[in-house]
Amino acid sequence: MNSAPDRTSTAARTVYASMRKRALVTGASSGLGLEFADLLAAQGVDLVLAARRREPMEELAADLRARYGVDVVVLPIDLAAPGAAVRLKETLDASSTHIDILVNNAGYGLHGEFLDTPVERTADMIQLNVTALTELSYVFGQDMAARGSGKILLVASLLAYQPVPGFAAYAATKSYVLSFGEALHDELRERGVVVTTLCPGHTETGFDAAADAPVSPMLRRMTMKPRPVAEAGLDALSRGKASVIAGFMNKLVAFSNRLTPRASQRASMRKVLGP
Q1: Which PROSITE patterns match (predicted)?
Q2: Digit-coded pLDDT (tens) for 172-187
Q3: Catalytic residues
């Protein structure tokens, strides 16, 4: 007498599971990655978390499973390693795990004069911020375009809008992300894939410590919490926007760049971001 309801329940769960979306969040062990994962899980989206550090991702996964009842896969991987994006895709393909939403969040910055920074560190940053992001967009974008649906969120920066002494290479990588993302938005929308680029300003994450960057009083006043930044990105993605700048003051900064000479922009950035 009890077997029929059990079979019905199993069938219902199977149908429901087949309708569930799954997102891949890179850089999911800290900062904005935590917020993206939490916001998506709250919407009932299953997750794949990818970053170098396993322990914080396992803690996050356990919390999200308990609070939202979503399926969470943890994949420790160094995306700065050459070929890492392809290996990540192959790992997911081997388990028939399809990605509906790609949050290309992994990245970091380096602060300091270009010639005073070991070129190997700069190359490693470019590998992660530019090459890995591009390869991830390619391998997962191909699947999305073939299915005729999918969403890709790229995380750039407010620094993408001007040259930035002291963050020369980092700002250049984010300029690439913004330009790349807006171009992909137009290329892929007719194939059913939405591409949105999020440009955060200064945000309370581990960025400053990792970049060994000072925080000026002016910059501290403009600092945003990570939650509203992540919300702005996912909201813009859901509305199909090409790009979004998080925060009113940051929007003003980007707009002012249209009205000021580039030499003035460089001088302002050096003052705001410190020596």
Answers
A1: ADH_SHORT
A2: 999 999 999 999 999 9
A3: 170
